[in-house]
Amino acid sequence: MVERDGCDRKLSKKSRRSFPCSSSIIIACLQSVFLIFLITPGCAQLVVNVKEKGGDVYKEAINANTTAETVTLEFKRSDGTFITQFIDFKNEIQIFKALVLGEEERGQNQFQVMCYITRFIKNEFISADAMSKLRQKNPGALRTPEDDKGQEKHQKDLLVDVERAEAITPHTSDICGDAKDTTYARDADLKYIAKSLNKDYAKMLTATSRPTGSVYHSPRCTLVQDLFKSCVCRYELCIGWYPCGLKYCRGKDNSGKVISYRCGIKTCKKCRMFEYYVKAKQMCLWDEEEKPVQML
Ligand SMILES: *[C@@H]1O[C@H](CO)[C@@H](O)[C@H](O)[C@H]1NC(C)=O
Question: Where are the membrane-spanning stretches (predicted)?
């Protein structure tokens, strides 16, 4: 029988909607762990148990909206950090959001939210349509990715005004409404997208501003002692498991002709190191040099 796990589980306010689940689903390929169905079911959420190398397990929820052509992947790490990856396929944009719990004893807010707006490269993630058709045979299984794509460095040289960023993606204020002064982007990404989609680069740029210091030339936060001094902050964000491509199976149709059809997914892990200028080291307290271990 087809499992419909995930439809009832909620990880965030955004996914707290009820999805009508279709029961008349046809299985396309039985050998595969992940199945792509021929009929689009109404229920479009997948919940996956991801196991990290260190042994930590977390639940990842992936929602696809085929009308808007968007995918939202979210999970909460064991340290309390809440991560969102949002992909807007039409606008070739993806947004990475991190909600990091603060250290109150060091005068920080209870939490900090950062949004990193990044160019979406085609075929980095399966389409919203393929995502909406994905189900797993064994929802309780612990998943590890087949392919580790390593780490990518992203230097962000723009601040984004989330209320005015419709030209970049109309979803910016939904996703980054709680990161008003901490949403970052890269000039080169906007230029690239403007070319690729024939959009108005100048219009996209009006929703951004240059920070007062340079991400390329300011000192790293690890080298700054004073919590009120500016520096370049680093934040590493890893997506431990995601569908990065489709697998094809061969079979025969009714007339005996050999056909190839989508029957499963390739899975990947990818990390991104975001670098950006902050006005005060206070905004970047996680980014510290490793302290030498004290020997007993
Ligand atoms: C999907 O996107 C459409 C168009 O943006 C929106 O109207 C609809 O509410 C979305 N559906 C869900 C389940 O979020």
Answer: 21-39
The CB of 142 under 6 Å from ligand 1? The reply is no
For ligand 1, say whether the CB of 121 is within 6 Å of any of its atoms. Answer: no
User: Mean of the pLDDT values across residues 22-27?
Assistant: 32
The whole-number pLDDT of residue 44 equals 62
Tokens representing 255?
């007339």
Model pTM score: 0.83
Q: Where residue 291 falls among pLDDT bands split at 50, 70, 90?
A: low
- What are the structure tokens assigned to 250, written together? 């061969």
Q: Residue 78 has what DSSP assignment?
A: T
H helices of the chain, in order, are: 128-132, 172-176, 187-197, 201-205
Query: Is 281 in contact with 222 (CB distance < 8 Å)?
Result: no
CB-based burial of residue 69 (10 Å sphere; 0-12 exposed, 13-18 middle, 19+ buried)?
A: middle
Atom of ligand 1 lying closest to residue 66 CA: 1
Residue 189 φ then ψ, to 5°: -65, -45
Q: Residue 194 and residue 167: Cα distance in Å, rounded?
A: 10
Mean pLDDT value across the chain: 84
Using CA atoms, how far apart are residues 296 and 293, in angstroms rounded to an integer? 9
